[in-house]
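Box 4.2: Ligand-aware structure prediction
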Amino acid sequence: MKILVTGGAGFIGSNVSDALVGEGHNVVIVDNLSTGKEENINPGAQFYNVDITDEEALEDVFRSFEPEVVFHIAAQIDVRKSVEDPAFDAEVNVVGSVNVFRMSVQYGVRRVVLSSTGGALYGEVGQLPVSEGASVEPVSPYGVSKYCAENYLNYFKRLYGLERVILRYGNVYGPRQDPLGEAGVVAIFTRKILDGESPTIFGDGTQTRDYIYVEDVVKANVLALEGKEGIYNIGTGKETSVNELVEIFSKVLGREIKPEYTSPRIGEVTRISLNGDMAKRELGFTPKYSLPEGIKKTIDWYRGK
Ligand code: NAD
């Protein structure tokens, strides 16, 4: 199948691209390398250094490749940056996404699989783990822009029959996540701990996240290629606090790790976990990796680098 992957040089996009190439698909990657890396790009895929906000350049790719399916994974993913510069966040995550969806309709794409967020979308939720039908009250511009992209995709489905699968991820971690970025606590902790430094916790460390290993997220994307259309939480349903995360690192490494504490950051929810029942029922997706297993694999990968 001819598949276009936006953001295919990034953490999740490159892992998804590897799986698609591995399954024998004809893959084209569009990425502007803003956070993605050339070394992540699968050699079996064709790469275009194109910005999704550059309509003309993006259209050239759609016109020449005529993809059947698009995995739209490219985004501005930094929550803090979105708070500082909401207009830039919207430019990439809303305008860029609209370009991708509009061209998908124009060039006869059958299905779009959108990487969205469960962690930043729902806001502060009373009942956890949260289901897809819960109210959406993001506490960051990033959450707003990702939800806006979802709504545009729903609109293109409604009006033009574009098939769509929306995957709302928990906190994804694993090989290739940028440890020097602002996002990705597992990657940041792994680098600091392996460098012999103390990890920094923003706030008192009781804030919880639903951590999901990248291989599980890849599996969800592969299932979304042919699976039932819908909007799915992709998480484990488990809440883990940042303090517990440090304990897991201590156990996996067999030594005590002492974090440093600093003031909390705005734009971040205090507690979240995602109910994955719908993805299990409709997509046949269940996550395979426990957090200690995933952290061990992640540490091994960074050590081998
Ligand atoms: P990432 O930064 O590694 O990947 C994003 C990719 O998009 C990068 O390769 C970057 O260069 C590219 N990109 C950014 N702006 C672009 C533009 N204007 N034009 C073309 N390419 C552009 O981040 P990631 O963690 O792999 O995130 C991938 C997707 O998953 C994003 O849509 C993100 O919102 C979503 N997501 C991630 C997480 C997580 O925990 N990592 C959680 C929920 C949702």
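In the box above, the bound molecule is nicotinamide-adenine-dinucleotide. Residues 7, 9-13, 31-36, 51-53, 73-77, 92, 96, 115, 117, 119, 146, 169, 171-172 surround nicotinamide-adenine-dinucleotide (CB under 6 Å).
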